Amino acid sequence: MGGRRGVAENMRSGIRQSDGWLRGVMVALAVLLPATAATGQETPAVVTVLTSFPASFYEPVREAFEQAHPDRRLRVVNTKTTAAITQLQDRAGEEVDVFWASAPDAFEVLKAAGLLAPVASRPTGAPATIGNQPIDDPDGSYLGFALSGYGLVWDQPYLDRHGLAAPRGWEDLRRPGYARHLGITAPSRSGTMHLMVETVLQLHGWERGWATWLEIAGNLATVTARSYGVVEGVAKGRFGIGLAIDFLGQGAGQGTEPGERVPDIGGLRFAYPADSVFLPASVAILRGAPNPAGAGVFVDFLLSPAGQALMLRPDIGRLPVRPDAYAAAPAGYPNPYARETGNDRFLFDRALSSRRYELVNLLFDELITFRLKTLNRVWQLIHEGESRLATLPDPVARDLLRDARAAATAVPVDAVQAIDPTFSAALRRSARGMPISARQGELEAEWRAFSKARLDTALSAAERALVILRVAAGEGGWP
Amino acid sequence: MTSLALTRDRIARVRPGPALAALLIAAFLLLFLVVPVVQVIFVAFQDKTTGAFTLVNFADFFRNDLFMRSFANSFYVSAMSVVVASLLALPLAYLTMRFEFRGAVLIQSLGIIPLIMPPFIGAVAMQLLFGRNGSVNLLLRDHFGVSIPFMEGLNGVIFVQSIHYFPFILINLSASLKNIDRAMEESAQNLGCHGFRLFRRIVFPLAMPGYVAGASLVFIKVFDDLGTPLLLNVNDMLAPQAYLRISSIGIADPMGYVISVVLIACSLLALWVSALAMRGKDYATVQRGGGGLAKRRLKPLELVAAYAVVLLILVLVLAPHVGLGLLSFATIWSFSPVPDAFTLKHYQTVFTESGQYITNTLLYASLAALLDVVIGTAIAYLVLRTKLPGRQWLDYIAMAALAVPGVVLGIGYLRSFYGVPMPFTGQPLSNFWLILVFALAIRRLPYALRACTAALQQVSSSLEEAAENLGATKLRTVGRIVVPLMSGGILAGFVTSFATAAVELSATIMLVHSQSDAPLAYGLYVYMQSAAGRGPGAALGVFAVVIVGLGTYLSHVVIERGRRERGQDH
Question: What sequence ranges are listed for the domain ABC transmembrane type-1 (chain B) (predicted)?
């Protein structure tokens, strides 16, 4: 197929090719009308945008953009962030002009790979930083167009029913009471989730950060296949609390698969964790874009007052980067610029994140996604043991539970290895069914064995501790 | 008509006293052995929710790869333990029987020393001596740059178990070598057979029954043992799996019962195989006096080799004792061939913190042993001295306890007595400490019963008849004549039951309900779970070894004295 051929070339050369003719026809049909109406071939009309945003997000933007620029058409290629990175790195699929997504680390990965063209900052009136985070890339490779808070979405009636308090921060999610009430998606399948994983890893440090995630994992009911599945799961009562990006949790109607609506959003609440960070959702122009001029126009549009005002639409529900845009916001709309909280000392290190991007994804899958049931069991026992220990101190059980906790929170890669480029060079999230490199296979097998062995150790230590504690409490050796 | 008359006649001759005793014993065995075991088997075949008959639990067992691996591991460990134990026992047995060897006394003590330390007690000490960073491997690595994985995973279990259990093979094999008719050997030699061929074709087959008896006993013991794998943290074997299922999921989980049935089935299978191997191989000696193989003196070089073998095995056998002793006095012992320094504080800790373990053990073990000799004596008397119908069954049922693993008995007790509320308190009966005593008594009953039967066999019934002729009642005869004459055997039975019950872990660990009721074996297990507890644990272990050692010595003295007295009588 003519995958390597650009859209522009396709357009110029018409529908000559026999192998890619069907797509040629479609592209041509999409562009022919405006192209003939336009003055000439110098300003191609089609701007191709690769994005992870759902249709409910990009459709209104597309409409408004095409209204403001009747001579242009916006073509949207919708895919997951992680898949988008692979696609751009492998130059598979069609050429695109603009990459448009939430996850800053995704942009870092692309920047490091030299795939982004410089883009000049626009006069938007936005400050250079929000909290401590720069809004635009200091190297000028991508621009923030909206802000996202990442956090907790929950169903209040569900929590009431189970007698649970709403969580306030990441740390809270480790609480034993939330066992099997949590839902997340895998970072390897969602850039948003990856960002949250990385945020905690940076907030707490590599080892402690993984310990936090591994303990949170003990409370997981499920790991959904897509990030939208998290809000949907909360809305449908499959679990009570999810981790999601703020726009997915707010207001009505957004967040589910395109075309589907959340059946009952009455009880859904969203909160930014106490130590949350606001990170920009960004837009970048790709190096070698077939339509750089059109790409620039699109970026300008996004950052214009009209484009920013779109962010406030209930079906988009994003936080504009322009502080002046909030004047038109409905009452109660969160304004990150007016927010006092947040961790001002914390600086999300995008370069650090990009250096271990795939490593974190793959590790998370081996340590958490594929081990959910065992993690549930291990942490249930450790938490029960620890709560018994609080009322009945027993040195032997304490040692055993400490061993269990240490084994259950161990991570097979250390912080130095994690950012060693030679270590993670070979790591790639491969498309399904595609072979992975031998080294990656080895590492994954090693991590799998590590995780299995540690969880076995943790399970047996925790079981023994519980027997001792039960007997010490005079309840007999079994539950 | 005649048979009916005979039966009526027999019934008429049944006196109420023995019948009452038999009924009481039968009720005890039924309640505390038959019902729990049948209960376990029953539950294994029951649907968890509906209670209907089903094989699905077994299907689950065979589909689960953890259980299948555990099954394979248990089998492998037991078989390998037999092999290693045979390697230890064969040269020793052959040396003592074939040669004039002054080290024979040494070998005899080799047959006792391991048995006075329950394997699970020595396991932790063995890890410090032979583990990856144990004394031996540290020295090997420093001097030769190699290390031997003695204690890695299953190896550790095999190593510890075979050192502990090889005396079973040694004793049985020695006994059957001793009984070989020398004429057999001489005939073979006359026909031109000698050397290894003589051993392979004549000596070994003749010694086979003893060897098979010892080997199958080792196999069963290792297969059923819970304590050693648990202490060595090897969980993927059957007995630990049964225990872990019950202790982590609860008594409602059918898998614990299914594993129990598999354990019983394998015990029976091993017994059956040994019976099969013995069938038609009754090599009873035709003539007495010429027993045993021809002995010859060792040549000097052979003597050196013989002593080297014996000393090597002696070192291995003493290793757990030495290790445990060192550990109980050690301050810190980690990554070094010997401990950093020595202290008495572990003993102090044990006596101040864990006095209840020791007193509980003394109480439980002596009650259990008392129960054993009372029941043992009664069964022996009923079987040998009365014509009570069905009296043999008491013997059979009591001996059947041999084939019931401790963990199975524990699970059976939990299942049977948890639902029974205790009078007054309303607590489940299974929480009552006396239940633990009953479990220990049932576990040790076969040994006590054999001791009592042997003792009664040696009392001539003419003495009882004389007493009765002088007008003594049956009860008075038993009390004043039979029991005093049996006292040596009864005491020996009591002491062995006591000593082994004191360190029983398999059934105990399932039935311990609260720390204040826990016996020594449980305390030991708990101590050995953490690095900080190893010192006090070892001190408690030394105490246990002293109890068992003293007990063994006492029973030995009692038996020897009895033998000498009888010798004088004749």
Answer: 71-270, 358-555
